[in-house]
Amino acid sequence: MTQQQRFQAAIVGCGVVAETSHLPALRASADRVDLVAAVESDPERLADFQSQYDIASAYTSVADMLSDCRPDLVIVCTPPATHADIAVQSLEAGAWVLLEKPPCLSLAEYARIEAAETGGGPYAGVVFQHRFGSGARNAVDLISSGALGQPLVAVCTTAWYRDQTYFDVPWRGRWETEGGGTTMGHGIHQMDLLLAMLGEWEEVRAMAGRLARAVDTEDVSMASVRFAGGAMASIVNSTLSPREESYIRVDLTDATVELTHLYGYTNADWRYTPAVHVRDAERIASWTDLPQDVTSSHTAQLPYFLDAMAKGERPPLSGRQGREALELVAAIYRSAFTGQPVRRGDIGPDDPYYHRMDGVTE
């Protein structure tokens, strides 16, 4: 029996996401990966994190960690403005990279990350964990196979609530440090799942506003999106919604698919409603006959990334696939701030929205 390859990992950024999402994922894959190092700019937080989770090495510098430990995998959980530099630095040192969302501030920064990758690895991937729950994988398979008919109409809602104290953290709510507001920092997860279900978008028309929070970015956005396959979708992103909900609905010729959750789902959060002309009970039952119930989570995504590392293959949500949601976000901002529709491919290196999500040129 061939022994499974083991990897050494380092976490950069020891905040809430690292503690509540990435550490459980690493523990669940402890037979394949060891957490050997942590990096944090706050020495007191770093010491607490190292002690609490029994991590062998701790650093306040990414460069020192890469030189000393030479990890196979670097997991980046720092504020978005630091992601691109850490990713490039890690890739050039030979480490694979898993980036928290948003992966970086702009399409230009994402291109920098891609340029630092090497064929056969290392590669950089993005944490979009909602693609990896069993419910989503089932829905994507059903839609892509044509089992539910042709996608026609969709709704994608991220209606969350964040009070002003949330945005009082210095790097939040600022274009130069967070890259955007609710569209970039919150709705991007649901929009990525919508892209998994419907494929490439073709045209975007959008609005965005700053209605209630003292921020530089938007706290609400709305977009109408036409997809290459012909389906049309309405997207709403908000951090002003007291009754919080994450919701996706796709109406196809033979069924309606719905997902209602908040920050993660199980199979029970998915609903399939057959069209009136679909009466085959066995066919309808097959839509929800899943052998496993895998919750959408970092724990669900990490094994796919480790599999790719072991094979020297590009992991899911890296390269072009990892860029899809970022391209949609950029199109929403460009349409909202210019008042013009945006077609796929419009935002290239000569466009200001390629370099900053607010389109500001310096």
Task: Tell me what the structure shows.
With 362 residues, this protein is an alpha/beta fold. It folds into two domains: 7-126, NAD(P)-binding Rossmann-like Domain (Rossmann fold, 3-Layer(aba) Sandwich), CATH 3.40.50; 130-291, 2-Layer Sandwich (Dihydrodipicolinate Reductase, domain 2). Helices cover 36% and strands 25% of the residues. The chain is built from 14 helices and 14 strands. The protein has helices at residues 16-28, 43-53, 62-69, 83-92, 107-115, 134-145, 164-167, 175-178, 182-185, 188-198, 281-286, 298-311, 319-338, 352-355, and strands at 7-12, 33-39, 57-59, 73-76, 96-99, 124-126, 151-161, 201-209, 220-227, 232-238, 240-252, 255-261, 270-274, 342-343. The chain has an eight-stranded mixed beta sheet. Strand 11 and strand 12 form a beta hairpin. It is globular, with a radius of gyration of 21 Å. It starts with 6 loop residues before the first strand and ends in a 7-residue tail after the last helix. Residues 8-116 form the Gfo/Idh/MocA-like oxidoreductase N-terminal domain. This is Oxidoreductase. GO terms for molecular function: nucleotide binding. It comes from Kibdelosporangium phytohabitans. Residues 138-257 form the GFO/IDH/MocA-like oxidoreductase domain.
Distance between the termini: 59 Å
Helix run count: 14
Q: Which runs of at least 5 residues are low in confidence (pLDDT < 50)?
A: none
**CATH homologous superfamily heading of the largest domain:** Dihydrodipicolinate Reductase, domain 2
Radius of gyration: 21 Å
How many discrete domains? Answer: 2
Biggest sheet, open or closed, and with what strands and sense? 8 strands, mixed
